[in-house]
Amino acid sequence: MKILLQLDSTTAINILTAQDQTVHKYHNLVLQFQGLIQRNWEVRISHIYREGNKVADFLANKGHSVSIGYHVFESTDSGLSFWILYDFWEFPKPV
């Protein structure tokens, strides 16, 4: 299985790729993630500017308006379908 993980945080990339060994409140979650990418998968982690991933930006902003916990957002949510197509086709930024 090939997985491409694009993050807009170089700090998160450093933590997930074990370049940052600092113990923090998400340490157990990071260890679980690292266990996943150790499997027989081809995983590539790369940096992407937030402007290059509008779906992630949309979901991050939407996350500020919901309670803490597990949430499922359907692609039919207001605006999400548009940003999925936008990222897929790599359209220029709307004005």
From TrEMBL:
This is RNase H type-1 domain-containing protein. Signal peptide: none annotated. Pfam families: RVT_3 (PF13456). Residues 2-62 form the RNase H type-1 domain. It comes from Linum tenue. InterPro entries: RNase_H-like_dom_plant, RNaseH-like_sf, RNaseH_domain, RNaseH_sf. The lineage of its organism: Eukaryota, Viridiplantae, Streptophyta, Embryophyta, Tracheophyta. GO terms for molecular function: nucleic acid binding; RNA-DNA hybrid ribonuclease activity.
